[in-house]
Every structure is written in structure tokens, then in C-alpha cells.
Amino acid sequence: MDQLLHHLRHLGFTEMESKIMVELARQGSASGYEVAKRLGVSRSNVYSTLQRLEQRGFLRCSAGEPAKYSVLKPEEMTSMISGQMRTSLEYVQSSMPQHEPEKPVFYNIEGDKNVFENLSRELAEAKHEIVVDVWREEAELLRADLQGAEDRGVRLLWSCDGGEGIMDQPAPWPGLPSYGTGNGRKFSLVVDRRWCMLGMRGESCVTQAMVTEHPVMTGLLLNHFAQELVLYELEQDMGEELESRYGHRYQNLSARYWSVPSEGI
């Protein structure tokens, strides 16, 4: 009973309206006096509420003295409410004032729940393409959302490190050195080449992510992803030659650019 009253109030009925409708549904039909007696409330409150519900179309009133009220069948009531809500939602959508779009902003999200709820919402809205650069642990958490997107015809581009995944072997370019104290796994996603998330997650750090639609950041992540996979393809074709010239995993070459700066810089 409490749950039913709760949901009726959630649909916009007052507590008195909800109790009267449930009572009438239980009795079949009743006069205002009978309803007031059953609920233990004043007749004046009951009569005004009955008239209001009748005017809104949720009650029927029989002719005669005393007048008896009955509530619509559940399927009739829910159909009426659904139609009214749909009409209101369509009107709000078409009539709500709109302002000029704001300039792209950057914002931070913290915590596993917040990060993955934000991601799930965006992945569910993807229409054309999703670019994913993650570790195996995060790939497993996103698998259902990404599978759903792929089932809708969205193009998926994957890079997955850290064990078995959709792409088992890591990209050939060695990772950048770690700056600061975080030891988490970095991940990034770009949706429809307009929205992106870049973050870190792991047992030794709080899950954090930066989200933006700024074209500079989405462009940087897409370029980084493309360069890693191009290098991966090159290594597959020219692995021995590249290793003999630059060293295993290109350590000699990459050290020129990605060496950790000395203290004080």
C-alpha cells in the first residue's frame, strides 16, 4: 500500500488524492461520506478532492442521491497519465527557450561510480564512432556498453594493453614516463570525434577523469591513437629492421624525447 501511494504521489497526485483513489479502487464505488468515514478525514476535504479528481477525468460520478464515485480502471488511468505526460514533454521540448551554445569547457569527475556512469550515458548516445584506448581491466567494465554501441552500427576502434583483450599486443611505442605520484592505469575514449574522456584508475589511486568537447583535446587524443596504431603496423612489417637500427622497442630513439627531466625542471 505504501509503495502504491508513493508511486501515485510521484505521478503528481497529492497524498489525499492518492488515498481516495486507492480506497475507491478497493470498494468499487462509494459516496463522499463513505470515503471520509473509511479514511478518517473530514468530509469537506474529501468532497473537494473528489470534485477535483472528477474534473481531471480520473473519477466517474453516478447520478442519484447520494452521488457515488468510482475510479478508472488501472489501464485507463495509466493510459491517460501517459498521454498527458507525453504531451507535456513534447511541449516543453519544443517551447523551452534556447540560448547560444557555450564554448567547450573542461570538467573533472572523481570516483569509479561517477566516471563510469558518465561514460555509459555518452556511449549510449554514440552514433558513428568510438575510439577506445584502455587497459584490460577497464575494457572488461566497458564491454557491455561498447557491445551495445557496436550492435547499433557504431564503428569501434580499440587499443587494449595489460593482458588479453581485443588487441592483445601493446602498441610498439614505449609509454611516457610517469610524472607526479599517480601509479594508475591511464585510459581515454573519444565519441563521435567531438566528446572525450581522459583519466586514470587503479588500486593505488582515486579514479579521476577529465571530460571535454574541446576540439583541441579530441584532436590530440585521436592523433595519439592513430600514431600508436601506425607504429604498431610498421613494427609488424619492419620489426627486425627497426630493432637493428634503433634498438629493442625503440628505446634508443625514444630516450631522446621521453627521458625523465632532471630534478628542478
Automatic annotation (TrEMBL):
InterPro entries recorded:
AsnC-type_HTH_dom, TrmB-like, Tscrpt_reg_TrmB_N, WH-like_DNA-bd_sf, WH_DNA-bd_sf
Which intervals hold domain Transcription regulator TrmB N-terminal? 8-75
Keyword vocabulary terms for this entry: Coiled coil
Q: Which Pfam families match?
A: TrmB
Asked if the keyword Coiled coil belongs to this entry, the reply reads yes
Q: Which residues form a coiled coil?
A: 109-152
Keyword Coiled coil among UniProt keywords: yes
Kindly give the Gene3D superfamilies that the UniProt entry links to this protein: Winged helix-like DNA-binding domain superfamily/Winged helix DNA-binding domain
One example GO MF annotation: sequence-specific DNA binding
* PANTHER family the record matches: HTH-TYPE TRANSCRIPTIONAL REGULATOR TRMBL2
Any idea what this protein is called?
Transcriptional regulator
Protein species of origin: Paenibacillus xylanivorans
